[in-house]
Amino acid sequence: MRSTIRVPIAILIAAVVAIVAPVAASMIQKGGDPAQAHDVARHGLVTIYGSLADSILANKRCEEDVVRAILEMERGLALGALDRAATNPAALAEAAEHIASFSTEGGATVEPIRNRLLAGGHHHNADDTGPDAMYDSGYVVVDRKTKRMALDLSKECAQLAQAGAASADEIAKIRRELASLAPAPKGK
Q: What's the pLDDT at 1?
């Protein structure tokens, strides 16, 4: 998927640059006004840069949508496991795992992707850094407070799984708390 996104953008940029520069040079060689050639080149390159900015911002929105879908999938899987936990206490461990994955925006399967983005200089919340930052580095929509609450809930669920049983009230409490966990509003 990565190459299918990058290649068309790279081809578009290369094609436009390959056209804009020779057109501007040709205008000058044919005795055209260098200022006009410069304007043609500038306009072409600014148009490319504008399109590139649109693409980058669209990818950022797409990243947020994908992470939100991952969160809802993990929440749904956890709720399904909690439904089974009334008759199958082993499902509590499954629920705990999905709640933990919710807290980390996808768990260990997403972490290498997040690390690759960070290594490449991409941080969805790049303007939110430092000790008072709302988000951990690389996180898209789960802020630190929500992450901590979800991790605590996952730990509580895992402890019930280790005990081998949970009351209907304990399972209902976990369901309510999981349902109340909300990532940052869309487009924060």
A: 45
